[in-house]
Amino acid sequence: MVRVIASRTASAPCPESAGPSLACGPSPSPFNRGRCRSIVKRVVRSTSVPIAELPEPTIRSPSQCPGTASLAADRRESLVTLARRWSKLRRIFVLEDAAYRGLTFDGEDPPSVWSYDRSGDTVILARTFSKTFSPGLKTGFGVLPESLVEPILRLKGNHDFGSANFAQILLDRLMENGAYEAQVARLLVVYRRKRDALLGALREHFATFHGTVRWTEPRGGLYVWLTLPEDLDSGPDGSLFSRSVTEGVLYVPGAYAFAGSAGAVPKNHARLCFGAPGENDLVEGVRRLAVALSGCLEAVA
Fold first, then answer.
1. Cα 22 to Cα 2: distance, rounded to the nearest angstrom
2. Could you report the per-residue pLDDT of 75-117, keeping only the tens digit for each?
């Protein structure tokens, strides 16, 4: 079984659900709370099977979903160096999930982890056009070490028999005539306004929860990560979710973003998305969420 070490304690829900088809076993690891060296050591020590007998383990490098934090720039090259150093018996790959690269509102994108893999044998770069251009195209691309190209192509062929030719031709034309870059520039303006509207609404309507509720202020991406009191269950069976549905607002329970592990999965987080709703809807949604949350906290008190 390939051992996948997630980017942070919370990661995108998708790798967890994709695990069975990829023979993956996810395991959370907080990149930005410790040294990269300890992360790489964890890969080779997280099983009783000798590493020489393991299939290639993989470290999944961080994206902005859902916690909105990215791996610190000064740790990116170290991660590649350490993965290569510990690959004497079995190759350790680093999977860079860069779905939101290009959607940075403040400052510039940090150098990719892939850019430090000068020999091209360690980092798997995964990108998609669904976040930066149009979700409906359902088209992405990857840059792989040569040894992985054939098995990945076989796996993809077994899953969907190949990507749609129309979407690929359309994207080729859009990138050739400059329309793709123009759309990304427009989305940056729109998403920046939406992010600011959501954060402004949180500061206004969640002011009464000061000290008990925290949220991230992302520099890019499409999400805000909400942290609630530890004794408040934000899961689908919890009181906050049911009260939120009653108020007419939805969020993604944070429990879905935690990989399976020996410890208990935290249930006091929520992912808020500002991608699709308009600015007014975001403000109203936060107001309704605050009403639902207030009812939960009063019930606990």
1. 8
2. 788 888 888 888 877 788 888 888 898 999 988 888 899 999 9
2-174 CATH fold: Aspartate Aminotransferase; domain 2 (3.40.640)
**Single-letter code of the amino acid located at 170:** L
DSSP structural state of residue 66: T
The structure tokens listed for 139 are 């088209």
Residue 39: predicted pLDDT: 56
pTM of structure: 0.80
119, burial (CB in 10 Å: exposed 0-12, middle 13-18, buried 19+): exposed
Q: Check residue 20 and give its pLDDT.
A: 44
Question: Which of 123, 12, 126 is closest to 77 using CA atoms?
Answer: 123
The whole-angstrom separation of Cα 159 and Cα 162 is: 8
Q: How far apart are the first and last CA of the chain?
A: 46
Put the strands of the sheet holding 223-227 in their side by side order. Answer: 214-215, 223-227, 269-273, 252-253
Among 292, 270, 295, smallest CA distance to 216 is for: 270
CATH code at 182-300: 3.90.1150.10
Q: Are 193 and 279 in contact (CB under 8 A)?
A: yes
CA distance 62 to 150: 25
Domain extent listing, the chain? 2-174, 182-300
The verdict on whether omega for the bond into residue 277 sits within 30 degrees of 0, i.e. cis, is no
Contact 130, 92 (CB under 8 A): no
Q: Which helix (H) or strand (E) holds 97?
A: strand 93-97
